[in-house]
Every structure is written in structure tokens, then in C-alpha cells.
Amino acid sequence: MIDLSHVTLTFPDGESRITAVDDVSLRGENGVVTGITGPSGSGKSSLLAVAATLIRPDSGGVLIGDGPDAVDAAQLTRAEATELRRERIGIVFQQSNLLPALTAREQLRVMAHLGGEGRSARAGIDERTEELLDAVGLAAHADKRPHQLSGGQRQRVAIARGLVHDPEVLLVDEPTSALDQERGAEIMALIARLTHERRTATLLVTHDLVHRDALDSLVSVVDGRIEEAPAMAA
Ligand SMILES: Nc1ncnc2c1ncn2[C@@H]1O[C@H](COP(=O)(O)OP(=O)(O)O)[C@@H](O)[C@H]1O
Ligand SMILES: [Mg+2]
Smallest Cα–Cα separation from 79: which of 33, 29, 112, 116? Predict the structure, then answer.
């Protein structure tokens, strides 16, 4: 579960400040894909960056997890936030941000080594790597590097990488923007399936609603504020 409550985020803008996120409250439940839509510049990526603990908000709460394990990420130090992110949050950006020199398998394994856990944890990650490459349909492409993969395949690697440490929260920013509509639909369906199977609380930013079928719920952001949700029906 992720629960953003009254989150406000401003950036310096000359003499004054620009309000990118304006008193937003939004809850993402486990096993649910919550879509966030809205025009360019409305604050969607800023909101996701706050949820990802990459930016600390000016005010508001960012509760990650349920029950006694719940943590308010907005109150953590930078080091604590980094640790929380490594353990409990998966992030998939617009561009897949893969390392050019690494194979698909290595993109996933390197995450575990960055985490600095012990050998037994790493052995677990190696198993999870194979399982996830299979889950995203890339078992046969595990030894390929990014330039040998299509845009859709690269995005699959990024999704598998975002899930390799078994996060409770999955944050996805415009995953289909570099793909054609058919490939985009496949990626959205994949994210929906993995969210339901793995019970992640998934927040997914998308500026267009062609793929809204893959979303379990939808909110709209305009000028940094949550507006009434757009109609789910076509
Ligand atoms: N790092 C930053 N520094 C200053 N202004 C920013 C920064 N990131 C975003 N903004 C501003 O915040 C607003 C929201 O941007 P963003 O969250 O990227 O919107 P969206 O993802 O909906 O297109 C915009 O006015 C943008 O210019
Ligand atoms: Mg954006």
C-alpha cells in the first residue's frame, strides 16, 4: 500500500516558487493499478518522484506499506530513503534506462549487488532473476544486451528489474510513450498482470488513455491538483 496525504511540492522559479504538486492525497492499494493521467506539465512525474522518495515534499505524508511495517517516507533521511527504495519500492521510468554493456540477466542481477546484501540474499536474487525474466516473456533473450532488444523488450527488462527485489510499491512513469500502440498495450497488460499476481500497489502515470483498460482505477491531475476522475468507459 502507498498512501500520499496532502502532499505539496514546490520548485524554485526565479524569485518565487512553482507549485508542481498541490495538496494531493492519493492511496494505492495492494494488487491495484492506479492510473494517474493529466496534461503535460501538470505534475505527474513530480508526484511519482515524491512517491519514489527521490524528492522530499515540502509538506505531506508518503506512507509506504501496511500495519506495523508502514513507514512515512517523507520523514526519512536521504540514506534511509535510499534503503527504503532498494527494499520496498520498484521504479520503471519512461525510458528503460538500461546499462548498454549488460545483458538482460545482468541488468536484474546488478540490482542485488548494488543493494549490498549477503551471499544468501544474492543467491535468492539469482533465482528471482530467472523467474522474472520468464514472467515478462524474456527467458529466451536473457543473454542479449539492450541494442539487441526491441523497445518493447527493453521495457520488459526494466519492468522485471523494477520487481526483482519484490517491492510492495511499483511506480511507473509513461511506460508506453516510446512504443507503438500494440506494443504499448502488451506492456500495460503485463504491468496489470504482474500487479495482480504480486500484489504490488502500482501507481502508473500515463498522459493518454488509449490503454485505460489496463488500469483498475484512474485519477486526473491538473495544475498539480487531483481533479474528478475521468470516465472509465469509452
Ligand atoms: N526539477 C525541477 N525543477 C524545477 N521545476 C520543475 C522540476 N521538475 C518539474 N518542474 C516543474 O513542475 C511542473 C510539473 O512538472 P512534471 O511533474 O514533470 O509534469 P508532468 O510529468 O505532468 O508532465 C512543471 O511546471 C515543471 O516545469
Ligand atoms: Mg512527466
Answer: 116
Among 4, 7, 11, 204, the mutation site with the greatest number of ligand 1 atoms within 8 A of its Cβ is 11
H-state helical runs in 8-144: 44-51, 78-88, 104-115, 119-135
pLDDT in tens, 124-137: 888 899 999 999 99
Residues of the chain with pLDDT under 70: 112-123, 228-234
Predicted local distance difference test score (pLDDT) of residue 234: 46
Q: How far is the CA of 129 from the centre of ligand 1 (A)?
A: 34
Over the stretch 30-47, which tens digit does the pLDDT of each residue have?
A: 999 999 999 999 999 999
175 falls within a domain: yes
Q: Is 233 a domain residue?
A: no
> Who contacts 153 (Cβ-Cβ below 8 Å, separation ≥6)?
138, 141, 144
- What range defines the domain where residue 38 resides? 2-227
Query: From residue 167, how far is each of 29, 115, 195, 220 by CA, in Å?
Result: 13, 13, 11, 25
Nearest CA to ligand 1 atom 4: 11
Q: Whose CA is nearest to atom 2 of ligand 1?
A: 11
pLDDT at 118: 54
Give the number of domains in the chain: 1
Q: Whose CA is nearest to atom 25 of ligand 1?
A: 41
For 84: left if phi > 0, alpha if psi spans -120 to 50, otherwise beta; the answer is alpha
Q: Grid coordinates 515540502 are at which residue?
A: 58
Assess if residue 232 is contained within a domain: no
